[in-house]
Structure formats: C-alpha cells, structure tokens
Design a protein that fits this description.
The chain has 58 residues and is α+β, with helices and mostly antiparallel strands. The chain is 24% helix and 17% strand. Strands 1-2 form a two-stranded antiparallel ribbon. β1 and β2 form a beta hairpin. It is elongated and about 60 Å long.
Length: 58
C-alpha cells in the first residue's frame, strides 16, 4: 500500500487560491516538513536583463 498524502489535494487548492487572491506565500508544516505555495509573478514585475556595453569586463 502507498502512504497517505501529507497534504490533501483540496487543501493544496485552498492554499493556492489564497496565495493568488492575496498575493502572499502560504506555508504549512506537516511532520517537520514545510510546504510553500507562492503566487505567480506577473511578467511586468519580473526583472529585465541588463544590457552591458561590449567593452565591459569584470
């Protein structure tokens, strides 16, 4: 037999709904393991790559 799920699918869906609606990360700890659900980051908030000049050297 397989082990029962630590977090039920319904609980994951509820956590995902809260994360999306409120824009926050949701965490739950079960048996010493932390499960995190984060909302999607819209494209307008993602960092853009910085264009370096051709003569730039590190």
């Amino acid at each position: 037999m397989t082990a029962p799920a630590l977090i039920k699918q319904a609980e994951l869906r509820r956590m995902a709904t809260i994360a999306k609606r409120e824009g926050v990360r949701v965490e739950v700890e079960v048996n010493g393991r932390i499960f995190r659900i984060s909302p999607d980051i819209p494209d307008d908030h993602k960092p853009e790559p910085i264009a370096l000049p051709d003569d730039f050297a590190l």
